[in-house]
Write a structure and sequence with these properties.
Elements lengths: L1 E3 L4 E4 L13 H9 L5 H9 L9 E5 L11 E6 L7 E8 L4 E10 L37 E3 L2 E4 L2 E8 L3 E11 L4 E9 L5 E3 L9 E3 L24 E8 L5 E10 L7 E7 L7 E6 L5 E6 L2 E9 L5 E3 L1
Antiparallel strand pairs: 1-2, 3-4, 4-5, 5-6, 7-8, 8-9, 9-10, 10-11, 12-13, 14-15, 16-17, 18-19, 19-20
Length: 316
């Protein structure tokens, strides 16, 4: 459906009948991933490996499309895919009917031990990495940027920070002040990560490739940022909201943080020594500003939009 907001009218109601399915949502992924634990053949797979349910984690993976005109909305559920694999133990779930429609237990492998796999610093005994003393960036006069709702103005830049459950952070209407024209000049209408494709290219039957934005959603998978860890003490935080499978609003606390980052970098520098009896030195520091983190499976995507006083915009 296409809507003309200025006229408050519906322009087009054409229904697309080609291939395509909506993005996954967290609720249906959770329900689908829990189905194997009450499924008889899966329980038998655990029994013959002498495993307790507490030793198994089920994770979901999308099914590739190979050009078929008609396909079902399917999701594959694999056991212990990321660590301590069981071999090939895999269920296929029909998401519309929310039931297991296919099951495989193709072979067994010895389960690796869990010792030596802990990564949390709080659980590790010394020595663990170098001891680095903490430091802080103090802004005695407060932040140099101003916020009007979700619109930020800073240095010579203006931009709007938006959110989408598929794309995650969206930077819109970014403008840079043009000194010669004495006005802001639009340089970016709408910027976001359109897709992040993870092509493992393993030729085995159980291999997967992922569209982490289009299938799983960068926005829906955003993590709440931790003050003083994900972002420094001078950061300003913004929340985000999306609609769940039942159209109820879900709040992501501290979904964005804005902060001025100064790492001692130089934007512009010159020392003039050709003028008699004078030495002129000018150094302009490079300060960058919006950060989000999306967690999908075993990946944490740290997304930084860097606005620089030079007028450049960098996405990392």
């Amino acid at each position: 459906m296409i809507v003309d907001l200025s006229r408050r009218s519906i322009v087009e109601t054409k229904v697309y009948k080609g291939h395509g399915y909506p993005m996954l949502n967290i609720q249906e992924e959770a329900v689908a991933s829990a189905l194997p634990f009450s499924y008889g053949p899966f329980k038998e797979s655990l029994k013959k490996r002498s495993l307790h349910i507490s030793e198994v984690v089920c994770s979901d993976y999308t099914v590739c499309w190979f050009g078929e005109k008609k396909t079902k909305r399917l999701l594959k559920i694999s056991a212990n895919f990321y660590m301590r694999p069981l071999g090939v133990v895999e269920a296929t779930v029909d998401l519309d009917e929310m039931k297991i429609v296919d099951y495989k237990d193709r072979y067994m492998v010895p389960m690796p031990k869990a010792e030596g796999t802990e990564y949390r610093a709080s659980k590790l005994k010394p020595p663990f990495g170098p001891n680095v003393k903490g430091f802080a960036l103090m802004k005695h006069d407060g932040p140099a940027f101003k916020l009007d709702g979700n619109t930020a103005s800073w240095a010579n830049s203006e931009f709007h920070v938006g959110f989408d459950n598929r794309a995650g952070p969206i930077i819109s209407l970014a403008s840079v002040y043009d000194l010669e024209m004495q006005k802001y000049r639009r340089v970016l209408y709408r910027g976001f990560i359109s897709e992040l494709f993870v092509p493992y290219q393993d030729p085995s039957e159980e291999s997967y490739s992922y569209f982490d934005s289009g299938e799983f959603g960068f926005g829906e998978s955003e993590s709440s940022l931790e003050p003083l860890k994900d972002c420094p003490s001078n950061a300003h935080f913004l929340d985000a909201f999306y609609a769940d499978a039942n159209a109820k609003p879900v709040k992501i606390t501290n979904a964005f943080c804005k902060f001025e980052k100064y790492a001692g970098d130089i934007m512009w520098r010159h020392t003039e020594v050709e003028i008699p009896n004078q030495v002129i030195t000018e150094v302009r520091p490079d300060v960058t500003l919006v950060r989000t983190v999306s967690t999908l499976g075993n990946y944490d995507y740290i997304i930084d939009w860097e606005f620089k006083p030079s007028g450049s915009i960098n996405l990392r």
